[in-house]
Predict the structure of Cytochrome P450 6BQ9.
Amino acid sequence: MTLITNNLTLDLVAIIATFLVGIIVYFKWQLSYWDRLGVPSLNPTLVFGDFKNYIFAKCSLGEQFKELYDQFKSKGYKHGGIFVGPKPFYIPVDPDLGKHIMQKDFQHFMNHGFYINEEVDPLTGNLFSLEDAKWRNMRVKLTPTFTSGKMKMMFQTLADCTRGLKEIMDNLALNHAPADIKEILGRFTTDIIGSVAFGIECNSLKNPDAEFRKYGRKIVETGFIDRIKVFLVLSIPHALLRFWRFKFTNTEVETFFMGAIQDTVNYREKNNVYRKDFMHLLLQLKNRGLVADDQKITDDKGNIKENDLITINELAAQAFVFFLGGFETSSTTVSWALYELATNQDIQEKLRKEINDVLSRHNNKLSYDAMMEMTYMDKVINETLRKYPPLPIIPRVCNKDYTIPNTSTKLSRGTSVAIPVLAIHTDPEYYPNPEKFDPEHFSEENVKARPGFTWLPFGDGPRICIGMRFGMMQSKVGLATILKNYKIKLNNKTEFPIKVDPKNFITTAKGGVWLDVEKLD
Ligand code: HEM
């Protein structure tokens, strides 16, 4: 049987050719999207759009966006449009546009546009992914969990984990062995966040193959399949992915975390356990519908806010995102800080002096108040987050048609936006000599002289990182513990000049950061 000609082979060739031409026409039409809208664009290619270098692991996600931002900036554009595959993304170049998107006109750009399918993939129902009213409600419920009072309450749990960190560093110093610092700090922050988010002693500092560490690694180390999943989530309409019952979370990871959370919840509810951690506050939300300053996870006086109760799946998704947000971001931040301090010994000495001076006023004990007094430490961490923002871009989606300020261009509902954080942080207009590690970029005068929305490691506006205080606190504790007790130098196992690993979503050092450690008296 033939369809078009009298020859089956010719028919097949005709069908395939028509299909290919259709795809090419579709891509060409899509790739003219920004031109049709009057937004400057670059030279996207069929299939990959402007994203070829990232897809082929030639550069990291942040570097890919930086390359595109730099092109727009060099042509004097205030904004631009790019393509991830066929999907258009809007990029603000002028920080004032960033301010509109993240703060002034937040009601138009409320969502991250991440994939959610709470039914098939329950861990995607977390605060980072939630949208619209669901996000707002959850954000309001979780905000009291991260006040400075709650940070103070959790400080001791956090400080307890420094013991294991010191044991490892002592051993390395004694044996003159190089420290794979990113790995060690990954175990340190896993122990902290496992303890405060799950109430579980993970013991990954003692045992590098502890389960929490193993699954934590699985989440952040992205293989080919994970890159494809990211590409699908970025380029395919989510309604279609939901229709396919697409699952973003790795099933093994989901089974492990859901199991661990369910066990902890059961244990605490059955034994009425009180512990000063996030899990306690999440359990209050689950059983009482509010976060309270007391030891109770249930309320016997019938004083329950029924409408504000969260389900066990919602609790699990939030504990999961605290874990995810909490360990890798801070451990990479401290690793990069130590890399820079090993390369800049004068800054290392200056910071050590501040740590010793402050601690001498606090009985030589790490405490929340002592950490708050370390202002040079703040500058060093801010500068680290400038050069190496763990999230090199921040995604947003336009949820209500929007006219770009001072233009007649309309972004329609559903348009994706990427705030190019790394690119802004390394723009010489805001940070002269951006490759230089200089904590004085964060002196009072320099901060005042810079336009707003040019330092965005935690994002900004109503959707700013909810765990910022906690992230800063654990980074400071890690850095203070190491610098107080050890002098560090770069070991020659560290690649020099160091490169960002293109295979990781988070800004991490390719090949790791290796340090020589000398114990101080
Ligand atoms: C150095 C440490 C950290 C960095 C650099 C960081 C960075 C970020 C960024 C860039 C965002 C997106 C903000 C936006 O859209 O404007 C974010 C959101 C978020 N972060 Fe962090 N984070 C850190 C630590 C933490 C910690 C310790 C936790 C939890 C314990 C956490 C939990 C979250 C959550 C739940 C969100 C979603 C907030 C929302 O959508 O309302 N992060 N973080």
In short: DSSP finds 21 helices and nine strands in the chain. The CA atoms of residues 225 and 408 lie 41 Å apart. The pocket of protoporphyrin IX containing FE is lined by residues 127-128, 139, 321-322, 325-326, 329-330, 333, 390-391, 394, 457-460, 463-467, 470-471, 475 (CB under 6 Å). The longest strand covers residues 79-84.
